[in-house]
Design brief:
The structure holds two protein chains of two kinds. By secondary structure, chain A is an alpha+beta fold. Chain A has six helices and eleven strands. The two termini of chain A are 16 Å apart. Classes of the chains: A alpha+beta, B mainly alpha. The interface between A and B is large, with 38 and 34 residues.
């Protein structure tokens, strides 16, 4: 099967330390005030003693049919054969149509470059055989990335073992971040 | 992640001016083709107004780009899935041809041809082509927002709303110019027919807003909550006061009063100016509220 890059994120392992955001900024030089990834906080749910709070990391979902790519008037936004959604800066005019069209608000206009900016799944690191910066730095191992179609990958094994959910499937873009909310005691070995 | 409006006032001005130009163009074209000499003032003012608002709006679009010097990439290709791509081509074509149309309406001494019939021939030819382009320019802005797939912008009635509002503002601009001008002041029968058409358009616009509200109520939770921002949320005062009351209901009352002859001739002129100004004012806020409220509201998780 074709390579299909994506994320599996285990919310039960996230402690909202925001190290993924710091690592991404250090690696990809996102300008201050903007970020390519995020951690949302559910706030405290329920009443004492039955209280609950959860954190949900996120970034570009590298969707199956990305609306940002469809609306791009110059073809600067594109999806690679391995599923990674990227922006070709030379063609981008900075019209912000893709920023509007993303249901996840995963894009922004980089004021330094004048181009649409987003998660690249750290392709520069993948080419060197490294994990994306946010995945490598995650101390709870909540963030996992890899080929969702490769049965030997960590992400595919997690998908097999645990119930998953995706965000805003109504929007119809086919997001490729799978969230696991149940406790995961051990991360499986894999690629 | 970001929490600001990616599309702001520059885009609102563009949406408004493009509609205004398209409306003025169709008004002029119809006056020329169906009215002839009897409605010449309408034809002239529509032609004189049409090229300039959209030219200003296009300038705003360029200023809004993150990489304005890269704009030529828009015209190196046609991306069939992107409304902005064919929209850019349509704006370019419309603006250029409306400048030609404008030129053909200039007094005879500016004309290139020695026989005036040649100019009239081209005028009539353009008057048959321009309405198609005008409808595309006026309604595609709605398709543009449709494709951005935000809850408020998803309604299929948005292109229709923008189209009707565009024609309404275009007519209002012609009424305004025709009432204020000395040299080419619009005659009474000309203002009368424009007012009749504008009343019909305003009623259609009110119906469209009602239909949008109804379809939002029947839609997803995200769509319901987004439209609620217009009805009683963050944008309610603008929606009710600036769009519905000032931009639609008051002009409707003034214009029907005028048509029924309840206004003395002394006041008729100022009344036409007042109501057409309000139509323009309301038309601007239609674009403003839809643009901002559409970004203010998102998908319910």
């Amino acid at each position: 099967m074709a390579v299909k890059m994506g994320f599996v994120i285990i919310t039960s392992r996230c402690i909202d330390c925001d190290a993924c955001m710091v690592a991404c900024r250090a690696e990809n030089q996102a300008p201050l005030g903007y970020s390519r990834n995020w951690v949302t906080n559910s706030g405290i749910k329920g009443r004492f003693p039955k209280v609950k709070q959860s954190f949900e990391p996120g970034n570009c979902m590298h969707c199956d049919s990305p609306s940002c790519v469809a609306v791009c008037p110059t073809g600067a936004s594109y999806k690679r054969s391995d599923g990674i959604v990227l922006v070709e800066d030379a063609k981008c005019v900075g019209c912000k149509y893709c920023v509007e069209a993303c249901p996840y608000d995963a894009r922004f206009l980089n004021p330094n470059t004048g181009k649409a900016d987003k998660c690249t799944l750290c392709i520069q690191r993948l080419e060197q055989g490294l994990q994306p910066a946010c995945v490598q730095t995650c101390l709870g191992k909540a963030r996992q990335a890899g080929d969702l179609n490769d049965p030997d990958s960590v992400v595919a094994k997690l998908l097999d073992l645990y119930p998953v959910r995706r965000l805003l499937t109504d929007a119809g873009t086919g997001p490729n971040i799978y969230y696991i909310d149940v406790p995961v005691s051990e991360i499986p070995e894999g690629k | 992640m970001h929490n600001e409006f990616a599309w702001g006032m520059l885009i609102v001005i563009y949406l408004f001016t493009a509609g205004l130009s398209a409306g003025a163009m169709v008004t002029s074209n119809s006056a020329l083709l169906f009215g002839g000499e009897k409605y010449a003032r309408i034809g002239r003012w529509g032609a004189y107004i049409a090229p300039f608002p959209i030219a200003l709006g296009t300038g705003m679009l360029l200023l809004d780009l993150g990489s304005p010097f890269n704009f030529y990439h828009l015209f190196l290709q046609l991306q069939v899935k992107s409304p902005m791509s064919y929209g850019s081509w349509s704006i370019l074509l419309f603006t250029l041809l409306s400048l030609v149309y404008f030129y053909l309406w200039l007094p005879e001494r500016y004309q290139f041809w020695s026989q005036p019939q040649r100019a009239v021939h081209w005028q009539r030819l353009l008057a048959k082509v321009m309405p198609i382009l005008a409808v595309i320019v006026a309604s595609y802005t709605g398709v543009l927002l449709n494709a951005a797939a935000r809850p408020l912008w998803q309604t299929p009635l948005l292109p229709e709303l923008f189209l009707v509002s565009a024609f309404s503002t275009g007519i209002a601009a012609v009424i305004l110019a025709g009432s204020l001008s000395r040299r080419w002041r619009a005659k009474h029968h000309e203002l009368h027919i424009l007012t009749v058409v504008d009343v019909v358009l305003v009623v259609i616009e009110l119906i469209l807003f009602a239909a949008m509200g109804l379809s939002a109520q029947l839609g997803t939770l995200s769509q319901r909550q987004a439209f609620a921002q217009l009805l009683y949320g963050h944008y309610a005062w603008m929606f009710w006061l600036l769009i519905v009351i000032c931009g639609l209901v008051i002009p409707l009352v003034l214009e029907t009063g005028e048509l029924k002859g309840k206004v003395s001739a002394k006041w008729a002129g100022s009344l036409a100016i007042g109501s057409s100004f309000l139509v323009l004012f309301g038309g601007f806020f239609v674009r403003y509220v839809i643009t901002y409220a559409g970004q203010w509201t998102g998908w319910v998780r």
